[in-house]
């Protein structure tokens, strides 16, 4: 079977600058969302997961000069450096670099301190390539809110086709006035910390993060490994900003990913949903999950921990899903109160230990895009 | 990578206010026209009866026009994948949104501040429920497009692929899309993609 392995990873977020710190925070149901003053909003501010500049600069000083790089660049460089530091065997002349972002350095539209070309998303790829000395031309993916998961899928597709043997997949996005004002114009922003799938959900919070994952076709020498067995992305062909009422694209993505993994819905032990907490998105997911026979599978959304980290989110949540499987841990779907969608779902209310083998990660986004990924925990079988 | 027998079944380009179906020019307007006017006249000329077109941003209008021409003489499977790329992402509309931020922001502008929206618009217009991806490259990269089209076809994730380049920056645009399948005469290769892309750039 064609698959890849998820090896080392790094998470740079308001919950910490390592995967370990992030997992500890999640186990303790600690959220990175905080209130930030801003007079654009009737509530005079918004909740978001924002990385403190001082902390980031302090961490970045160990690897580079902060004034040479934008905030987003510092975040993604830090994420990649965490992986390279711990994996000295990585051959930079053969390791691909796959980057996912929706808006990149979009905040540079108003600031002119950096050269104009830094706003181009391909330049973000070049900055990472040059900083570390990767040889291959970076591949940059900008496909709305599924970008991070799609980047993993693209890595698997190229690796299993023999284009390269291993890759570092890195995702990152900022909380910018640009995106805040846009979601606000859609009336999609919650004035409170978001409540995915809950009756009282009132919309999204935004968040920022940079995450990186090392993936490879070669099975690592561990007793337990996580593989990416199946993936698929199907467009709704319904509406560019509203999810399909029937959840068609997400449903088809799930079916195709399960088919490729050669398993059925009843094999899935845990489901990591997109769960943005907008009324329409969560309802659409509930419909697609029910059509797929997943209504009883323990599931969560990580959005109340981080906010929606856009191009990073599906990659960030894939990393967290990996640790759910590895550690046999189900993390609480934070802020969930009472079911608020028309179909039954099994939201995880409290941290729980449970033997897990297969997990499904899904994401959906503007443009009608959807994505599903199947991860498996493999022992020495 | 595999050496399967895939072909460039057909291709379309839009450049300098001219539209080419394959290598034949099918429409042109005076170069002095503004982009919006060119797009509008092309819409009329192609007899598109699709009022949604007028709500779209420039990148999506270019994508709709190009796909209309490309699909004209072919039966397109609803599972045909879309693999697009450009350099400027949605920068043209990003600037519009940025300007509006000091006053009133419009959701109908904001929604177009993502490059993959054009994939959604084409999917809606042609009822394609399929694999989509938008790559950002600093210039046309035939190797990436060939490799990814082959990967999707070989993995049987799709029976055909529409791939290409669709860039819009400061009202300057460059569109080249091609249909990849098992039908046709031109072998899918990096060189052939490059040559066909450059043809309209001469």
Biggest beta-sheet profile of chain B? 8 strands, mixed
Helix content of chain A: 25-40%
The chain pair with the largest interface is: A-B, 56 and 51 residues
The CATH homology group name of chain B:
Thiolase/Chalcone synthase
Mean pLDDT metric of chain A: 97
C-alpha end-to-end distance of chain A: 15 Å
Q: What would CATH call the class of the largest domain in chain A?
A: Alpha Beta
CATH homologous superfamily label of the largest domain in chain A: Thiolase/Chalcone synthase
Instruction: Give the overall pLDDT of chain B as a whole number.
Output: 95
Q: How many strands, what sense, and barrel or not for the largest sheet of chain A?
A: 11 strands, mixed
Task: State the domain count of chain B.
Answer: 1
Total E-strand runs of chain A: 16
What's the gyration radius of chain B in Å? 16 Å
Instruction: Report the CATH architecture of the largest domain in chain A.
Output: 3-Layer(aba) Sandwich
Count of β-strands of chain B: 8
Label the structural class of chain A. Answer: alpha/beta
Under the CATH scheme, which class of chain B?
Alpha Beta
Number of helical segments with 4 or more residues of chain A: 10
Give unreliable regions of chain A as ranges: none
By CATH, the topology of chain B is Peroxisomal Thiolase, Chain A, domain 1
Strand arrangement across the biggest beta sheet of chain A:
5-4-6-8-1-9-16-15-10-11-13
